[in-house]
Design goal:
Layout: E1 6-12, H1 32-42, E2 47-52, H2 55-63, E3 67-70, H3 78-89, E4 97-100, H4 110-118, E5 127-133, H5 137-141, E6 147-154, E7 157-164, E8 176-185, H6 186-194, H7 199-204, H8 208-213, E9 218-223, H9 233-259
Parallel strand pairs: 1-2, 1-4, 2-3, 5-9
Antiparallel strand pairs: 4-8, 5-8, 6-7, 7-9
Length: 260
């Protein structure tokens, strides 16, 4: 596959209930949505497009040199939004693999995007996603931390059996924190958005269960870090601090190279 076959789509909406205007939140002189687009481009796997219904988001993204696809405002999910954007920007159906990167992951390591996409190298896989082993005891029981449950294929890969807010699976062994980044085959995304919400999806409030209930295969790459998802003002402050530390580290490394 070439980079022309692959598209990174970043859905962005301004109507966050806990952090209104989230995509344009300032992170040290760069808006959150632009930071996510910048990190997505750094993965080097293909074209990056932000899918939004907001003119302010469009202006910020385009001024930073990234593409925008304008979509309807009434989408129920990011998956629906990126599917509309895909049809608008690729009517000739040249793109065969789509990565859905959430627009509120400003600390995302670009290598994680490639880790999800690489799962599609297996033709049996419909959707690729990510998880990291839980090391914080509080996360094991938190309903806010979604757990990926699967059968190990290798030490760094699971075939997903279930996703849940409960503590699962039972017994001794690792638990895995699901990271909501998805790589789709185009055919899988088309099938997914055409399906109605499934019973387990409605119960757990987890969209990916719709795919599993429909018999679609989801594989999970085990990675080492969980990017910070920004949902609250407190999360925003954490992201600002993390990015400031990153910038300071880069500056120190540059100065060290210059002196040597």
């Amino acid at each position: 596959m070439s980079s022309q076959d692959t598209l990174i789509l970043i859905p962005a909406r301004m109507a966050s209930t806990r952090l209104p205007g989230k995509p344009l939140a300032d992170l040290g002189g760069r808006s959150m949505i632009v930071e996510v687009a910048r990190r997505s481009a750094a993965a080097g796997i293909g074209r990056v497009v932000v899918a939004t219904d907001d003119a302010g988001v469009r202006a910020a993204v385009e001024s930073a040199g990234f593409e925008v696809a304008m979509t309807r405002a009434d989408h129920a999910s990011g998956s629906d939004r990126i599917f509309e954007a895909l049809g608008r920007i690729d009517p000739d159906r040249l793109v065969t693999r789509i990565v859905n990167v959430q627009g509120d992951l400003p600390t995302l390591d670009p290598s994680l995007i490639r880790a999800a996409l690489d799962l599609l190298d297996d033709p049996a896989v419909d959707i690729g996603t990510l998880a990291a082993e839980i090391t914080d005891a509080g996360e094991r029981t938190s309903p806010h931390v979604v757990k990926a449950v699967g059968s190990p294929i290798t030490t760094r890969r699971l075939r997903a059996l279930y996703f849940t807010r409960a503590t699962a699976p039972y017994g001794e062994g690792p638990l895995f924190h699901h990271i909501g980044l998805y790589a789709y085959r185009r055919s899988a995304l088309e099938r997914f958005v055409a399906l109605p919400p499934s019973p387990l999806e409605s119960r757990e409030k987890l969209e990916q269960l719709r795919a599993l209930e429909a018999g679609m295969r989801i594989d999970v790459a085990i990675v080492d870090t969980v990017p910070l998802g920004v949902d609250t003002p407190e999360d925003l402050e954490k992201a600002r601090a993390m990015l400031a530390r990153e910038a300071a580290s880069r500056q120190a490394a540059h100065e060290s190279r210059t002196l040597s």
